[in-house]
């Protein structure tokens, strides 16, 4: 006797209550199976959709094929999902897949934030040498760079770059540490105070090179030639789970399902 049948027998004395509980059980089984499929694909950096997802297709994409595999190997899932599920409660639509993925991403992010707490952390920034990138980095420090200072920084940077390029002493420097020392020695920190402040903030910023490289590698794995039309949000969700899989693995399905349920009104109830 499978799980659903045992529930029917247990509540057979009250048909209304039995139907309500049975509907919730079916919904939970369908949703749990969808969460399992989404978690596996996100963790492995695999695509969800296929070119031909109609019922008669021999390959309906990774998500639906994995879902069908689970159903073939679990009687409870098979009895309540795919062809046996209500049309509006199959929980296999692409929007459902994206909502499940985003729910996992939010819970993963919240876990990271809780772990960090009030501790120090670093911000990873890709290297570029143009003026606008330096201004964008300044935006990470709103307390040090109010809006007026950002406008002044724009002018200071242009003058600073021209000044540095015209000095043979500054052209021979090998790193930002030497640059900071040389600016103090030549009193450039007084001439360009905001640039010097930005430079000192960069010096105290801890950058984990290995983590940066791992992130770029993950992007190459996830955004392949066949997935080159991924939107920013969907790519971000895929990257977060793939990169932080050690953390996302520790989040149970119940937490994800509860978050998914609260994202918007759902026809089914847990």
Automatic annotation (TrEMBL):
Domain DUF4371 stretches: 24-141
Occurrences of domain HAT C-terminal dimerisation (ranges): 187-246
InterPro entries from the UniProt entry: DUF4371 (IPR025398), HATC_C_dom (IPR008906), RNaseH-like_sf (IPR012337)
Database matches in SUPFAM superfamilies: Ribonuclease H-like
Top-level taxon of origin: Eukaryota
GO molecular function: protein dimerization activity
Keywords from the UniProt entry: Membrane, Transmembrane, Transmembrane helix
Pfam families membership: Dimer_Tnp_hAT, DUF4371
TM stretches of this protein: 191-212
Name listed for the protein in its UniProt record: HAT C-terminal dimerisation domain-containing protein
């Amino acid at each position: 006797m499978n799980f659903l049948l045992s529930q029917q027998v247990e509540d057979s004395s009250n048909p209304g209550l039995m139907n309500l509980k049975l509907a919730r059980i079916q919904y939970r089984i369908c949703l749990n199976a969808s969460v399992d499929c989404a978690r596996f694909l996100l963790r492995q950096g695999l695509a969800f959709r296929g070119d031909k997802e109609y019922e008669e297709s021999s390959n309906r994409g990774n998500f639906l094929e994995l879902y069908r595999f689970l159903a073939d190997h679990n009687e409870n899932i098979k009895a309540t999902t795919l062809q046996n599920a209500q049309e509006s409660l199959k929980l296999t639509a692409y929007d459902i897949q994206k909502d499940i993925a985003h729910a996992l991403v939010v819970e993963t992010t919240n876990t990271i934030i809780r772990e960090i707490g009030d501790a120090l952390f670093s911000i990873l920034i890709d290297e570029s040498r143009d003026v606008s990138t330096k201004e964008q980095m300044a935006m990470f420090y709103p307390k040090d760079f109010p809006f007026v200072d950002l406008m002044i920084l724009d002018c200071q940077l242009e003058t600073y770059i021209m000044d540095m390029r015209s000095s043979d002493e500054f052209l021979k420097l090998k790193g930002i540490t030497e640059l900071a020392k040389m600016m103090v020695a030549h009193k450039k920190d007084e001439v360009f105070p905001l640039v010097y402040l930005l430079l000192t903030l960069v010096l105290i910023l801890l950058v984990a090179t290995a983590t940066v490289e791992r992130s770029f590698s993950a992007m190459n794995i996830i955004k392949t030639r066949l997935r080159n039309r991924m939107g920013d949000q969907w790519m971000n969700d895929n990257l977060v789970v793939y990169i932080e899989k050690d953390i996302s693995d520790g989040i149970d399905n119940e937490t994800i399902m509860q978050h998914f349920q609260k994202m918007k009104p759902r026809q089914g109830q847990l």
